[in-house]
Write a structure and sequence with these properties.
The structure holds 2 protein chains of 2 kinds.
Chain A: H1 2-24, H2 31-48, H3 54-71, H4 77-94, H5 99-107, H6 112-137, H7 139-161, H8 163-168, H9 171-174, E1 179-183, H10 189-201, E2 204-209, H11 216-228, E3 232-236, H12 241-245, E4 250-254, E5 257-258, E6 264-267, H13 270-279, E7 284-287, H14 301-304, H15 310-313, H16 319-322, E8 325-327, E9 332-335, E10 342-344, E11 349-350, H17 355-362
Parallel strand pairs in A: 1-2, 1-4, 2-3, 4-7, 7-10
Antiparallel strand pairs in A: 5-6, 6-9, 10-11
Chain B: H1 2-5, H2 10-21, H3 41-63, H4 92-102, H5 121-126, H6 137-147, H7 154-170, H8 180-198, H9 203-217, H10 225-256, E1 264-268, H11 272-283, E2 289-295, H12 301-310, E3 315-321, H13 325-331, E4 336-340, E5 343-344, E6 350-353, H14 356-365, E7 370-373, H15 397-400, H16 410-428, H17 434-454, E8 469-471, E9 476-479, E10 486-489, E11 492-494, H18 499-509
Parallel strand pairs in B: 1-2, 1-4, 2-3, 4-7, 7-10
Antiparallel strand pairs in B: 5-6, 6-9, 10-11
Helix pairs in contact in B: 2-16, 6-7, 6-8, 7-9, 7-10, 10-11
The chains are: A alpha/beta, B alpha/beta.
């Protein structure tokens, strides 16, 4: 028994280490990819892991989750996915294996499950020992738990991949005819989908900022795709944002991660654009899938901002400057919650003050 | 005209403004190098008009004295057309009429709808034709430098323009039957018209020109031409000294009190006055401080400032692009934000390089005082409310290049395009019709575009082919007075609302 568990533990270690090295070497980048890969990874972990009590199971997943979060510390999606999976497991364990609870929690539906799970949180204190004993003896119960959890993760994975479709559904209500939109995040696939879907029903103009130097290639591709869909597109340099803001109706940004206070991390330059929009009283919409919402609080803003290649800001061709000037190239920007009017997600449309409602169902 | 109706034949369309840009040929595109195989009705009409005007001029030439054909301006080597036209100074209104008829609405120029009321470079160039022959070479050189952004910046352009005017005055000869006081002004006007085709005049240049014209008209009648010219040149020197160089020094005195040891200063782009200020504080007053330089596409003027200041011992330079502005402001506790100006408008707004408003707004929101250093020559009595109604459009293609900025002059570009077109025609032989040539060159162009679009580097090298895609490149923006704490000029430091007061003062001095 112990040697089998040894082998299993080794297999698990190998699995975890491979995934962590992939993350550390940045072989997987981008929130969407990381989220889907993490789901796959967790499914494999759950199938190969060995544990005797559900508490042990939860601890195992937590440890793995902490390790993969540290692999790419500025990518909060890994942590979010792990938290969702933990929520699935906990509901499964606490909620006497009711599929109802699982399904509801996965889809983030309103109040009823919240009440029952909180209620059960209080009630399991008494019954945990009995349930522990029950499961200890029943390895088939273990397998049941495993398969249910894997099913839950599959649903989560489906939800993540259908983020774009669900967000698209909300476009038509938000954009009116002949509107001028500004988007400072051309690298966001969600925003692109949003605009392409909206163009089927509405005619509007999109101003795209260049996000030089980090996202300029993506900006050009983005603009090309919009132009091919016959949307009036104008590429503007980042400096021109203030000049045109008085003519802009809405600002649309794609968020990388969203935090518990409603602030978000996005591309460099977006914070200034949102500030500018605030000055002109222009509404700012942020689109993000639910998997990007993290219950962490951004205490230390500096640690959120990743710094990139200074050579893009000042190429080595300016050799006389390179050694003498301090050059930094922050890749991200933190946007304070007051500057964002609304978060559009695949489930709901959130206002930042009420974001904690969402976190109630997810974090435990 | 086939080239107008066929938007794909951009090379053909660009031949048209090239011809108009080439020296004093009137707007007759068919006269460029290759023999006119395409005789089109509009052009025939224009040819007729030209012939009539030539006849008129030949008749009038006898009455008028000779003009000042300093040099046959030979930009492309295609100036054989010039010899047909007489080189006579025309009145301003005649010139204007000719220029208006010469302007060609280039339908291939793509501007975003919001800014379509602004004049593009192509339109400016199209206005240049007939004047080119009587333009002084210093002015020609200066225009080229200005249009390729080699000479950039309000004070620099003003100073260079005045230096060029000194050359013009030196080589000026008053024609018979008129006096220097009356004629020199119109002569200068022709030069200025040509300068305008490079880039629109800035407020400082406009003020200087007004002053100069006034000075010319004030020259006493008895004074001989030589003395008058010497006097004018001295006056110009004095003006440059007073209004630009010494003003800079006085502003530096006023502003240097703000920069203490170990302070952190934020600045945007490049400004002559600010450069002097920083150098003065570091070298003469021996203060050591940090400078955060914020820069943007496409001109990257901040690099110039960084180059100058990084070699100064006491200054520590930090260089950032405008996208990282909020990170810079967040991380480092900046003490002051110094901005330069193109002009100050009468309603207290600052008209400066695009991006200044963003810097000023972000600084204000972090409670960093924003100070503007601006000589009084840059003050204007214009009023403007936003950056869209009145602005300057730059070349859209400057934005596409992700590589370092290296601009060829417009005329040179046209010449190169013409060479290409000629090569294509020679390859096809003399007998082919124009249509087929067009198609051929078009096919080659399409092939080239296909190849380049397959390359990852310049995804947008064929951006003009997408009808819904536009690129915006404006050069200036307007900063509202709420963001500005103080304007420092050589007559003192004042709040932005006091600009009209200075204008009154300034007018009374001159």
């Amino acid at each position: 028994m112990s040697s089998a568990s040894h082998v299993a533990a080794q297999k698990l270690d190998i699995l975890v280490d491979t995934f962590i090295s992939k993350l550390k070497r940045r072989q997987i980048t981008g929130s969407y990819k990381i989220a889907t890969e993490t789901c796959q990874f967790l499914m494999r972990v759950i199938s190969t892991s060995r544990w005797s009590t559900p508490q042990e199971f939860i601890q195992l997943i937590r440890k793995v989750g902490q390790r993969i979060q540290e692999a790419q510390p500025r990518e909060f999606v890994t942590g979010n996915v792990v938290r969702r999976v933990l929520a699935i497991i906990r509901d499964e364990v606490n909620g006497t294996g009711d599929s109802l609870n699982n399904a509801n929690v996965n889809n983030g539906a309103p109040s009823a499950p919240v009440d029952t799970s909180m209620f059960q949180l209080l009630s399991t204190v008494n019954t945990s020992s009995s349930t522990n004993l029950a499961i200890k003896e029943n390895t088939r119960g273990q397998n049941d738990l495993r398969s249910v959890v894997i099913q839950g993760i599959r649903e989560l994975s489906d939800e993540i991949s259908s983020v774009n479709e669900n967000i698209e559904a909300m476009t038509v209500d938000l954009i009116h005819e002949n509107e001028v939109l500004l988007t400072p995040t051309p690298g966001s696939g969600t925003v692109l989908n949003f605009l392409l879907k909206a163009s089927l029903k509405r005619k509007f103009t999109v101003l795209v900022t260049e996000s030089y130097p980090n996202d300029i290639e993506e900006c050009h591709l983005f603009a090309k795709k919009l132009a091919e869909a016959n949307i009036e597109t104008v590429i503007i340099p980042d400096s021109t944002v203030f000049a045109v803001m008085s003519r802009v109706g809405k600002v649309l940004i794609g968020a990388r991660s969203v935090f518990a206070n409603g602030g978000c991390v996005s591309n460099a330059g977006v914070a200034a654009v949102c500030e500018c929009a605030k000055e002109h009283r222009t509404p700012v919409f942020a689109v993000a899938g639910l998997y990007k919402f993290s219950p962490t609080y951004p205490f230390d803003k500096d640690s959120l901002i990743e710094v990139g290649n200074s050579g893009k800001v000042m190429p080595f061709e300016d050799s006389d400057l390179v050694g003498k000037c301090e050059v930094t190239n922050p890749v991200f920007d933190y946007v304070i919650p007051e500057h964002i009017d609304i978060y559009i997600t695949n489930m709901y449309v959130y206002f930042f003050l009420f974001i904690n409602l969402f976190f109630q169902f997810i974090s435990t | 005209m086939t080239d107008k109706k066929d938007p794909k034949a951009t090379s053909q369309a660009s031949v048209v403004p090239a011809a108009t840009a080439s020296t004093s040929a009137a707007a007759n595109a068919s006269k460029t190098g290759p023999p006119p195989q395409k005789t089109l009705t509009n052009k025939e009409l224009k040819e007729l008009k030209k012939k009539e005007k030539a006849a008129k001029r030949a008749a009038a030439k006898a009455a008028h004295g000779g003009a000042n054909p300093d040099q046959q301006h030979d930009q492309h080597g295609k100036s054989n057309n010039n010899n047909n036209k007489s080189q006579k100074p025309k009145t301003a209104s005649q010139l204007k009429k000719q220029m208006n008829s010469a302007k060609i609405k280039d339908t291939d120029v793509k501007i975003p709808a919001m800014f379509s009321h602004l004049e593009t470079r192509e339109q400016r160039i199209a206005a240049s034709p007939t004047v080119a022959s009587i333009v002084h070479p210093s002015i020609l050189a200066l225009t080229l430098k200005i249009s390729t952004y080699k000479v950039v910046g309000s004070s620099t352009r003003c100073q260079s323009m005045l230096e060029a005017f000194k050359d013009v005055i030196t080589s000026y000869k008053t024609p018979e039957g008129t006096s220097l006081q009356r004629h020199l002004t119109s002569h200068l006007s022709h030069q200025i018209e040509y300068l305008k085709t490079g880039r629109p005049l800035s407020v400082s240049m406009g003020n200087a020109i007004r002053w100069l014209k006034q000075k010319i008209s004030q020259i006493p009648i008895e004074m001989s031409d030589e003395d008058a010219k010497v006097q004018l040149k001295e006056d110009i020197d004095l003006f440059i000294q007073e209004k630009i160089l010494y003003s800079g020094k006085v502003i530096t005195q006023f502003a240097s009190g703000h920069i203490q040891n170990n302070s952190k200063i934020l600045t945007y782009g490049h400004s002559e006055v600010l450069k002097k200020l920083f150098k003065y504080c570091a070298i003469e007053e021996n203060k050591s401080f940090d400078i955060y330089i914020v820069d943007s596409k496409p001109l990257f003027e901040g690099k110039k400032l960084a180059k100058e200041l990084s070699s100064v011992k006491n200054i520590k330079c930090h260089y950032n692009l405008i996208t990282s502005l909020s990170s810079v402001l967040e991380r480092s506790s900046i003490d002051f934000c110094f901005l330069g100006a193109n002009s100050m408008l009468s309603n207290g707004r600052l008209y400066s390089r695009v991006g200044t408003a963003l810097v000023a707004m972000s600084s204000k929101n972090k409670s960093i005082p924003v100070l503007v250093c601006c000589e009084s020559i840059k003050f204007s009595d214009k009023v403007q409310l936003d950056s869209v109604t009145l602005n300057e459009l730059g070349d859209a293609d400057d934005m596409i290049n992700t590589k370092p900025f290296n601009k060829t002059g417009f005329n040179l570009q046209q010449y190169l395009n013409n060479l290409e077109a000629k090569k294509v025609e020679e390859q096809n032989g003399a007998g082919k019709k124009g249509q087929q040539q067009q198609q051929q060159s078009k096919k080659e162009k399409d092939d080239k575009l296909l190849q380049s679009s397959q390359k990852n580097e310049e995804t947008l090298s064929n951006w003009k082919d997408y009808p819904s895609l536009n690129i915006l490149n404006v050069l200036y923006d307007l900063t509202p007075p709420e963001y500005i704490q103080k304007i420092i000029t050589e007559v003192g430091a004042l709040p932005p609302s006091s600009v009209p007061v200075i204008l009154r003062e300034y007018k009374s001095i001159t």
